Amino acid sequence: MLITVLAGIIVNIAATWALSKANRSSLNVEGAFQHILNDRYAFIATAFAGAVVLFTGFARADAIASLIVVALMVKAGLGLLRDSGRILLEAAPAGVDPDAIADELLAVPSVVEVHDLHVWVITSHQPALSAHVLVKPEADCHQIRLVLGRLLASEHGLTHITLQVDHSPEELLSISMGQDANDATGHCADPHGSVHRTVHHTH
User: Fold this and answer.
1) Which of 69, 80, 62, 77 is nearest to 40 (CA)?
2) Beta partners for 120?
3) What stretch of H or E contains 96?
4) End-to-end alpha-carbon separation of the chain, Å?
5) CA triplet 86, 121, 15: central angle to 5 degrees?
6) Per-residue pLDDT tens digits for 17-72
7) Are 166 and 147 spatial neighbours (Cβ–Cβ below 8 Å)?
8) What distance in Å separates the CA atoms of residue 172 and residue 177, rounded to the nearest whole number?
9) C-alpha to C-alpha distance for 198 and 14, rounded to whole angstroms
């Protein structure tokens, strides 16, 4: 058994090395890599348990090794389940706060409102963002879209983005003067999610 296990470890190391060179941004490749990695743990645990049984006669070493391998498999499986769940539910990536991103976009000069902002995961480690951005009537929509794109890429690693940038209507600018932005009606009749708007305070 020990000879077979040692041979299996050698083959597994070669397979793990080959998969480590693949593009693991794909959840399928990552799942295969984790599977091979857990097989290596199983081989090592089996070799250790076999040596213990051979030299000490402690037969329960095999069961203990099995439980350790099961715990490692559960850990890897939960990680894959979490990542795949985020993709299926189109949830925001871990550590990404959409509201905080909206506030950063609002801090860019001439941006007056951000709504319909959605951050989700296309596949493992590939987040995407879409949003509707309103700017001042005299602002350059194309230039601001480029500025926002660079901001999202440099600060959050978001390169898969879709930004609809439009000029804000004059009535929206007048409504936001001195009024709570949450009480004002926005550019879209039915925006999805929170509406983030700059509020100008008058003295």
Assistant:
1) 69
2) 128
3) none
4) 84
5) 85
6) 888 777 766 778 888 888 888 888 888 888 888 888 888 888 888 889 889 989 98
7) no
8) 9
9) 57
Look at residue 182 in the predicted model and tell me its pLDDT.
45
Burial tier of 152 (Cβ tally within 10 Å: 0-12, 13-18, 19+):
buried
**DSSP bridge partners of 123:** 126
The pTM of the full predicted model, rounded to 2 decimals, is 0.58
The SS3 of residue 32 is: helix
Q: 199 exposed, middle or buried (CB, 10 Å; 0-12, 13-18, 19+)? A: middle
Collect all residues with Cβ–Cβ distance below 8 Å to 126 and sequence separation of at least 6. Answer: 25, 160
Q: Is 124 helix (H, G, I), strand (E, B) or coil?
A: coil
**Three-state SS for 160?**
strand
User: DSSP H helical segments within the chain, as ranges?
Assistant: 2-20, 27-56, 61-89, 98-106, 141-156, 170-175
Q: How far is CA 50 from CA 65, 71, 134, 185, 198, in A?
A: 10, 19, 68, 71, 68
138, two tokens: 């005299």
- Phi, then psi, of 58 in degrees rounded to 5: -80, 95
CA distance 51 to 45: 10
Q: What's the number of CA atoms in the CB half-sphere (13 Å) around residue 104? A: 18
Query: Of the given ranges (21-30, 53-62, 78-87, 162-171), which has the lowest mean pLDDT?
Result: 21-30
pLDDT at 176 over 70: no
- Measure CA 164 to chain center: 22
